[in-house]
Amino acid sequence: MSTGQLIIDLDAIAANWHALDALCAPTVETAATVKADGYGLGAAQVSRALARAGARTFFVATAEEGAALRETLGDAPAIFVYSGHMTGDTDMIGDLGLVPLLNSIEQMTHHVEALPMHPFGIQLDSGMNRLGMEPEEWFAIRNIALRQNPQLIVSHLACADQPDHPMNAQQLSQFREMTAGCDVPLSLAATGGVLLGADFHFDLTRPGIGLYGGLPFEQAQPTVQLSIPVIQTRQLDAGEPVGYGNTWIAEEDTRIATIAAGYADGVLRAISNQAVLFADDTPCPLVGLVSMDLITVDITHLDHTPRALDLICELQAVDDLAEPADTIGYEILTSLGARYGRRYKGGQ
Ligand SMILES: *Cc1c(COP(=O)(O)O)cnc(C)c1O
Fold first, then answer.
1. How confident is the model at residue 347 (pLDDT cuts 50, 70, 90)?
2. Which of 35, 82, 263, 330 is catalytic?
3. From the candidate CATH numbers 3.40.50.300, 3.20.20.10, 3.30.565.10, 3.30.465.10, the one assigned to the domain spanning 10-212
4. Phi/psi of residue 259, nearest 5 degrees
5. Whole-prediction pTM value?
6. Using omega within 30 degrees of 0 as the cis cutoff, is the peptide bond preceding 216 cis?
7. Atom from ligand 1 closest to the CA of residue 161
8. In angstroms, rounded to a whole number, what is the distance separating the alpha carbons of residues 266 and 40?
9. What's the confidence (pLDDT) of residue 2?
10. Mutate to test the pocket of ligand 1, among 59, 80, 133, 212 (most ligand atoms within 8 A of CB)
11. Is 35 a catalytic residue?
12. Catalytic entry in 39, 82, 212, 244
């Protein structure tokens, strides 16, 4: 086998959902965000495991993701679409019972004309300036919109991973002002918002990254292991280079393992000459540039040739790997390549 193997722990994902749920009052519903193929881990497997754990409401980015999810989960769960109701989405939304989160007056008009009586939610912009209706826009149509019986009103926090950031309180107060007197279920919190405490929970939370073991949910169980098979090893003399551009030169006699993954598999090239891989518990430095399908690793200090080296494991969580790439766990997860074999454990 010459592809990397991902082992995805569905029990850990379910445990993370329960742990986030336990941080909220029993009256607060914990939903699940499973966009971007369940943050790279497989939306079908992940969402089935979450449904078994007790999740009844799911969030995706696009109607296409919602359509696939409906196929996976059947008719019962509610599926909300963050991008709202886009041109071309009407049949999917209508036929598959997806619930668009309408982001503008334009989307609202389009929705009620194309699918009168079809359920919808509303996304408000409480300050992030990315998606959702601005306060002025919202107050102009609030009464009309509320008469159409929205299922849910949501907004999203820009700085929830920084508990002390003044933006959190600012957005909370803006959201409260915009929704005052609305007799509609409300949702402000993703993973970061859940951790900010009860003021941010409202009726429903919609965590994503915390389910998959990423920061800011420090207590999360890790959910992924990535093992990359060793294809070949070789002995180098001091002074010999490794990889494209000769960016790494052996300072002494060195044993190099060449392993079967590269930037085409989402191993970010930025970790070249920076990251380590693990042979069981022993760190082994990545040397030279990451190439498209291959990575070279210094295994001089090992007393054996391992069959595979781990890039993501208990000793190196996705956020640890994000650091040398100057990115975040979210990007590490959603970059996990299509070539990897994906094996699931648990989930029953
Ligand atoms: C992605 C997303 C979420 C989930 O966020 P996490 O930080 O992964 O928990 C929730 N709401 C919106 C609007 C999103 O775009």
1. confident
2. 35
3. 3.20.20.10
4. -120, 160
5. 0.97
6. yes
7. 7
8. 11
9. 83
10. 59
11. yes
12. 244
